[in-house]
Amino acid sequence: MSLNNSFRRIWRVAASVAPYLRDWTLALLFLGIAADALCTGLARLNEARAMAANDLNAANKAVFLAPTDPEAYRSRAAVLLKHSRVDQAVRDAERAVRLNPRDYALWVDLANALQQRGDDATHAYREATRLAPEYPDVRWSFGKYLLHIGRTKDAFAEFRQGSTNSPELFLQAAELAWAASNGDAQFVVQAANPRTNKEWCALSAFLVRHGKTQEATANLRGVQCLTEQDRVSLVVELIASEHFKDAQIIWLSGRSNQVDDAVEGRITDGGFDHPVLVDDAGFGWQFQQHEKSITATLDLQNPRAGTQSLRLDWKGESVPETPVVDQLVLVNPGSRYQLTFTARAGQLITGGLPYVEVRQATGNVTQSVKTGAALARSQPIAGSSGWQEYSVDFETGNAEAIYIVIRRESCPEQLCPIFGSAWFDDFNLTRLF
C-alpha cells in the first residue's frame, strides 16, 4: 500500500466519524494522530528492514518518517557503523541521546560509536551505568573499554560491580585478570576482589585449574565455604595434579571446619576406631568396592587395639593386582620411615596371600600401583589365629606422598581364587631420619 493511499483511507475514516464528533476540528486532530501512528509504524518496519539487511535506504526512510523518534536514529547509526561511516554514526547516536537522554541503551550505542571513531567514550559509558547500575552487561562493556585504554584498576572495579550477582561474570573477570597479568595469582585475587565465601571458593578452584595451588589453598584459610561436593572435587583435582600437601589441607578443612597445615607421616585412623566414610576421597582409608567377592567391615570382636579392627572377607575370584584397601599419606622426601601394623588370618585358602605394600603416590591409587615406585612390602599374611606384628622399612626418595595398600600376591596359575578372612589393626608410621 502506498503512503498516499494510506492517507486517503485515514481521511475517509476521519470523515465518517466527523458527524459523531460534531466538529471537524476533532476530525482533523484524529487525522493527525492517525497519520503520526502510521508514520511511526512504517518507520518501525523500515528500521527492522535496515537492521536485518544493513539497508541504509531503509534506515534513511525510517528517519524521514519519524524524525523525532530516537529509535530511528539508533537503527541508522548501527547501519552506518556497518558501512564504516563512523562520523555519521556518531552524529545519529548523539541525536538519539538528545531525544531520549534517559535511555541507557542509547548511551551504550553512543559509547560504542565513539570508541570506534577513536574518541573518549568514558562519559557515555558512565552515563549508561548511572542509568542502569544493576545491569551487569553495561558495566561489563564499560570495564572492557577501560581495560582497552589501559585503566586497569578502574576496569576491574566495573567488572566487580557487574559480577556481584553473576558467578559466570565473576570467573570471566578472573580470566581477564589472569590474561592481563600474565598469570599473576596475587593480581587476579586483588582484581577479582571476592567478597563472599562462594566467590572465594570459585576463585580458589580457578587458581587450581591454572596451577596456582598454593595460592588457592592460602585463599581458603579461614573461609568456611566449601560444600562437601566442592571439597571432594577440589581434593580429587589436587591429588590428580600431585599437589598432595594442598589436597590434605582442603581435606582436613572438611573435618575441623578450619584449614590446618599439612602433616607429614600421619596415618588417619590407623586403628580403624572410627566409621569409614564411603567415597571420601582424600587421606582416610579407601575401600575399593568394585570387587564383589571382597567384603570389608569394621569388626568389634577381638581387636588388637582400640575398639575395632578391619576385617576383609574373600569369597572367590578377585584380581590380585587390585588394591583392596588403601590410604594416602604425606611423607618427607629423602627420609626413611618404618611402617608397623598387626594382622591375623583365619583359614585363608589361596595361591596369592594378602600383604601390605608401600608405593610412591602419583595421581591416584590405581595409577600408583601401575606406575608408582614400589618402596617396600610386608611379609604375606598367612593363616594365624593370633595377632602378628609386621614391620616395613622404606626410604621415600623424592616422594612427597605414599600409598599404603592392602592387596594380594599374584598366583602361579591364571585362575587365582581366595577364600577366608584376614584382620588388620594398629597401623603406625614412624620417621627414622
Keyphrases for this structure?
433 residues, alpha+beta, Serine Threonine Protein Phosphatase 5, Tetratricopeptide repeat, Jelly Rolls, 3 domains, 5-stranded antiparallel beta sheet, 10 strands
Would you mind describing this structure in some detail?
The protein has 433 residues and is α+β, with helices and mostly antiparallel strands. The protein has three domains: 3-192, Serine Threonine Protein Phosphatase 5, Tetratricopeptide repeat, CATH 1.25.40; 194-262, no CATH class; 286-431, Galactose-binding domain-like (Jelly Rolls). Helix content is 48%, strand content 19%. The chain is built from 16 helices and ten strands. The chain has helices spanning 3-21, 24-53, 56-65, 70-82, 86-99, 104-117, 122-131, 136-148, 152-162, 167-180, 185-192, 197-209, 213-219, 228-240, 244-256, 365-371; strands at residues 286-287, 294-299, 309-317, 325-330, 336-350, 354-360, 374-377, 384-395, 401-408, 417-431. The chain has a five-stranded antiparallel β-sheet with strand order 1-4-9-6-7. The protein is elongated, with a radius of gyration of 37 Å.
